[in-house]
Design brief:
Layout: H1 7-21, E1 32-34, H2 38-41, H3 48-62, E2 64-65, H4 83-86, E3 88-90, E4 95-96, E5 108-114, E6 120-126, E7 143-149, H5 152-168, H6 174-183, E8 190-196, H7 199-207, E9 228-231, H8 243-248, H9 250-265, H10 272-276, H11 287-307, E10 314-317, H12 321-328, H13 334-351, E11 357-362, E12 378-385, E13 388-394, H14 395-407, E14 412-414
Parallel strand pairs: 1-3, 9-10
Antiparallel strand pairs: 2-4, 5-6, 7-8, 11-13, 11-14, 12-13
Helix pairs in contact: 5-7, 9-11, 11-12, 11-13, 12-13
Length: 424
């Protein structure tokens, strides 16, 4: 409570607070404790609000509600008389106030404060999320640790200091160190970053950085550098696609779940089994699941990069990747991208036979393959680069061509896809 310290003012403050937080008969599990810092320090003027906040935070830190020291005899006769019925208490002795175990409930605090100019300020606070225990198993095999300094000498000293600290603290959590050094530090223009799978490899990497003369300053660019996002087609598909991101990065998982709900609302099957590993292999998922899943994973990846502050200046997509690129560029909504990919896959299932034709990615130019490209046997599906060509044809014809090219020392790979995409 702000507690003006007057009979009338305290009663006026008390009534609405109790009407909101303790309006009627409440059980023992719903107690409301009242207090004020004014009895401890007196009138703090412009510092009264922050003084109250400090007291509340110390109460949460010490897991205790201190006794209200200002009550010597009776409380204000203008206060409500049904404190006991409402389970409202004013601590007259130190009261245990511990955070509930297992994180199922939280301690909640309401802080009330008035200003001399008539302004009212209120803060509603609660316990922060529980931190991971020190023995929490981080799923990542490698972690990044960053060090920076304002000059070559300072960064060299900071590297030496951190290496010595790691020597003296062999039980330190590497995931915690990585998070603190990257996400919780302001970095200067002289900076380095090392990776390691444990403290020893991280320390070795720090000590192997060489003299400070080799560490160049990284100035802040005058303008944001251009970044291109490139979205792939179905050839990059595999079982348990992006599973670690789905399991361990909440924002990515939330995007996937949202896209999956959209897909199911449009009548398509869930594509989550493609990601979480509940389907054994690609043979167990149909074209709709695999193609919608491919598009949605890439849309979620783009959103993840953007959430990290990496914005694309250009997007480009190949095959199914064009839908993800269009969505990321703001041309189509996520719902439209999913609908286009899903309907396209359904039409493929209805109009084409699975397992009759195949695709062959060849590491050669189109001109060098001109002898094989004709209407009767093979046709060009994709020209991915000066020496990257994809041909389509019947399965038997593709197998034959693969053997012929291998005999000529031309690398090729038969793609694990159900149709000869981008061909008649």
């Amino acid at each position: 409570m702000h507690g003006t310290g007057t009979q009338a003012g305290d009663a006026v403050e008390m009534k609405p607070v109790l009407d909101v937080f303790a309006p009627g008969n409440r059980g023992p599990e719903h107690s409301l404790h009242l207090g004020s810092v004014k009895a401890n320090v007196g009138h703090a003027e412009s510092g009264s609000g922050v003084t109250s906040l400090i007291k509340v935070l110390k109460m949460m830190e010490e897991n205790e509600i201190p006794p209200h020291c200002g009550i010597k005899t009776k409380i204000n006769h203008n206060f409500p008389t049904d404190f006991k019925v409402r389970n409202v208490k004013i601590a007259l002795e130190p009261t245990d106030w511990r955070r509930p175990e297992h994180g199922k409930r939280k301690r909640t605090v309401f802080l009330n404060n008035f200003s001399a100019a008539g302004g009212n300020t209120a803060l509603l606070m609660e316990d922060a999320p529980s931190v991971f225990p020190m023995d929490h198993l981080d799923p990542r095999s490698t972690h990044l640790v960053a060090v920076s300094g304002k000059s070559k000498l300072s960064i060299q000293k900071n590297i030496e200091t951190l290496a010595a600290f790691l020597n003296g603290n062999p039980e330190l959590s590497l995931p915690f160190l990585a998070y603190t050094s990257t996400a919780r530090r302001m970095h200067h223009s002289h900076r380095v970053i090392v990776s390691g799978h444990d403290l020893r490899s991280t320390k070795d990497a720090l000590q192997g950085l060489g003299p400070s003369e080799d560490l160049k300053s990284i100035p802040i660019p005058a303008k944001v550098p251009k970044v291109n996002f490139v979205f792939t087609g179905q050839g990059a598909l595999y079982a348990s696609l992006a599973r670690q991101l789905f399991d361990h990065i909440s924002s990515f998982g939330a995007s996937i779940q949202r896209f999956d709900r959209i897909a199911q609302s449009q009548g398509f099957p869930s594509f989550v089994p493609l990601i979480d590993g509940s389907r054994g292999g690609l043979q167990e998922v149909g074209p709709v699941v695999s193609q919608v899943g491919t598009v949605c994973v890439q849309m979620a990846l783009a959103q993840l990069w953007i959430s990290w502050g990496v914005y694309p200046s250009t997007v480009i997509g190949h095959s199914l990747g064009e839908y993800a690129a269009l969505h990321t560029a703001g041309v189509v909504s996520a719902s439209d991208a999913i609908f286009l990919a899903g309907i396209r896959a359904q039409v493929l299932e209805e109009r084409c036979n699975i397992g009759t034709h195949a695709m062959l990615a060849v590491k050669a130019s189109l001109s060098s393959l001109s002898n094989y490209v004709n209407r009767q046997s093979y046709e060009v599906a994709c020209i991915n680069g000066p020496n990257e060509t994809v041909l389509s044809g019947t399965i038997s014809g593709i197998d034959l061509l693969s053997n012929i090219l291998t005999a000529q020392n031309i690398k090729s790979i038969k793609l694990d896809v159900p149709f000869a995409f981008h061909s008649s």
